[in-house]
Amino acid sequence: MVPSIFAGLPAAPERRRATPLWRRAFAYWCFQFARTWRSTLTASVVYPTLYLAALGVGLGSLVDRHLGATSGSAGLDGVTYLRYVAPGILAGSVMQIAVNESTYPVMAATKWVHTYDAMLATPLRVLDVLAGHVGFVLLRLVVTSATFCAIAAGFGALVSPEAVLAVPAAVLTGLAFAAPVMAFAVTQERDSGFSVIHRLFVVPLFLFSGSFFPISQLPGFLQAVAVVTPLYHGVALCRACTLGRLWTLASLGHAAYLVALATAGWAAARVTFRRRLAP
Amino acid sequence: MSTVTGPASTARRAGPSAPARLRRALHIVERNFQVYRRGWIYFVSGFLEPFFYLLSIGVGLSHLVGDVRVGGQVVSYTLFVAPGLLASSAMNGAIFDTTYNLFFKLKVAHTYDAVLATPLGTADVALGEIGWALARGMTYAVAFLGVMAALGLVGSPWAILCLPGAALVSLAFAATGMAATSYMTSWQDLDGVFLAMLPMFLFSGTFYPLTVYPGAIAELVRITPLYQGVALLRALDTGTVSWSLLWHVAYLAALGGVGAVVTARRLRRLLAP
């Protein structure tokens, strides 16, 4: 907390729950975004298009030819590689955006720009501030996932009408990353931990969690590791949606895992945000 | 920029000899080395990314793609991709320090204003920064080639020439990256760097041969600098060597030379008092 001229005045007491005031914090982030969204177009439109074209179409042509020649089956998992890989790229890029949005902006609001402190100088309390920020990240994930699905549909990568549900599935995947990472980010004094998260967690998860090839190709112990990572469940759930194979017990398990992680992350963030920000 | 003018600026005009120039540039390299001693985690983890890619492709994608034809030779997909990733990691290693970090030092931290208050001049800064980027790119290249050798992904004795080849790729991208950054005025401009690098990484023949493309697009890809680097390193690694590789060498060397000259000129304009 920044020492203020109001330091002698009693602060409003912390509350046990967020109040409708959280909408003001949410509105602040939206206002920021309304001014800078153009620069995020690169990440949310250009990158998915390039990845789908390079891996889905380009590399996909080699994969489909090879699998067609060796096993006689049509592509991977009964579908073309483009259709197989599209939900993988969706979940992977949503994870990256979720992690980005919940690391540097949280640190900036905590100690670089002190946005959180400014909010707390108003009637907002810590949980309102947290809820407002999480709400904004949620909005950002919805926009990104919907954009990606529209582009993937343009590539012909979505097979079933259930693909619409890939948007909430991807958002849930993003939340399962965003909530715990925010809980961690607010405890940090320096940003060096963030690049470790990126290089030691985000990149390996992106490459080994079943986005690009089935995890059954991994050696046994790595399969066990992959199964407990959240991205594996995100990819599987998104793929079940885009390929029209959603209504199975496995999908329920994936969704339950992601919901549990997001909830645990939220609970942790409540604690760490209070510890760092409450006066 | 400096308000102090004095003997330092006149001494700078008397052109130093080549060894003296090199010694001065080494001060910049040493300065960067000292800085990274505290941020070694950034340095080390930069190596891991291409390594993870290689592992992922070796374990997973190679079984889906099968074998690929390179210059009349059939090789496994992992052997096909490895030199491509080597070229990409040489590019990445060189680009990080010469774009984002250079912009930060130039516009935010005013590091070079401090440097110019010493006997060092703008040409020393350009040479030193390119030298540092080259050293960083080479460190990644040596480590990556070591991993390739350990995994049996070195197809011929010519592969040892991948090291100078990777140095050339680093040099070309370091110099071009610095020259481009010297024209940038805001952080948003730097998005352009990634907008140029990602398509090159994905489409320059790193992951699949150009035969996948229709003719016109293949020609377009051929003129990108990363394709030149990938083609050079792949030919050396798989041992499909011919005189025509010298074209790639000439292309990359020319790009590096032009970039270095432009950078030196631009820095003189931006920084000299």
Poorly predicted segments of chain A: none
- The computed structural class of chain A is mainly alpha
Helix-strand topology string of chain B: HHHEEHHHHHHHHH
**What share of the residues of chain B does DSSP label as strand, in percent?**
under 5%
Mean pLDDT of chain B: 85
Shape of chain B: elongated
| Largest interface by Cβ-Cβ < 8 Å | A-B, 34 and 31 residues
Give the overall average pLDDT of chain A.
90
Order of helices and strands of chain A: HHHHHHHHHH
Oligomer: heterodimer
Can you offer a commentary on this structure?
The complex is a heterodimer of chains A (279) and B (273). By secondary structure, chain A is mainly alpha-helical. Chain A has 10 helices and no strands. Chain A has helices spanning 22-70, 81-101, 104-112, 115-120, 126-154, 166-185, 192-208, 220-228, 230-242, 249-277. In chain A, helix 2 packs across helix 9 (230-242). Chain A starts with 21 loop residues before the first helix and ends with a helix. Chain B has helices at residues 7-13, 18-38, 40-65, 77-98, 100-108, 111-116, 122-150, 162-181, 187-203, 215-222, 225-238, 245-271; strands at residues 67-70, 73-76. The chains are: A mainly alpha (279), B mainly alpha (273). Chain A binds chain B through residues 39, 42, 46-47, 50-51, 53-55, 58-59, 61-63, 66-67, 69-70, 76, 81, 192, 195-196, 199-200, 203-204, 207-208, 212-213, 217-219, and chain B through 39, 41-42, 45-46, 48-49, 52-53, 55-56, 59-61, 63-66, 68, 188, 191, 194-195, 198-199, 202-203, 207-208, 212-213.
